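Researcher: Here's the sequence for the chain we discussed earlier.
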Amino acid sequence: MKKIIIFIFMLFSAAMILAQSSADLKKQGYIAIQNKNFAEAETYFKKAAEITPEDFQIWIVLGFVQLEQKKYKETLANLQQSYKIAPRQKQKNDARFFLAKYYLTQNDNATAIKYAAEMAQYGAGQNYVNQFDRDAGFETIKNDPKFLEIKEQMKKNATPCMYDSNFQVLDFWVGVWDVYVKGNYPDYKVKVAVDSVVRSPGGCSLIEFFDMTPQSKYFGRSFSFYDDVKKVYRHQWTGSQGDIINYEVVESKNNRYVMMATTTIPGESGSTRLRRMTMDYDPSERTLHQYIENSYNDGKTWEVEWDALFRKIKDLE
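Model: Thanks. This is the structure I predict for it:
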């Protein structure tokens, strides 16, 4: 048994040494590329490929440095090898990029565009658009209508929420609003809060910053987004008094937006109530009428808890 353990340990150690050697070779190869010594880089990556042939990225870089040296036959073979062994479609996109560039050197624009189209199909985003624009190798097709369409699709891939109406249900809310509440004083005459709503980077959600006057010492934050799994738009509110409410949008048409939630009743452990928030947006007046109601009998009757008018004072992108 002891001999077997020692043997297994030796095999494991040898494997670690080989892997480390491949990593060292790759590191030296990348240094050579930075120095534009592509022949030296080719030597390092060839040795690395012998040690870890299953590493699809090695074959991409090997194809790249050979393409820089105009070794077209070797370039094609190594890029095709990377394309073949990359386990997922999205991981093949680097190979597709250089295959497209290779076919342009062979004056085969159609095949180059085919590989570029596959990149867009499998999720290539803005970073590849930037690479296309920087690389002089794509100069001959930069104005090709099909290529321009592919690049536009890649831009959409980078920020898909910006092009999907499901994620834009509450986008009218983006901006800064003065909030006037209905109460004992003249209706909607006294400002009680400022509400700011911004898009998250990429446009997949909205973030709300609701701050009432210093006297009330109440504020809240919300996070709104489209749940692509459940196919529902969600609005999650957290207030400074510990109130946490998870709404779902149940109606959104004709500038009316209705959300529903089930919440616990404060001070009554285990008891719940229905909560309904309705927002009526008037784009011509740039106002939003928001009111919140509670039902303690499964929606048979409703009691108004909050009735406010939001007046937009600033647009935000």
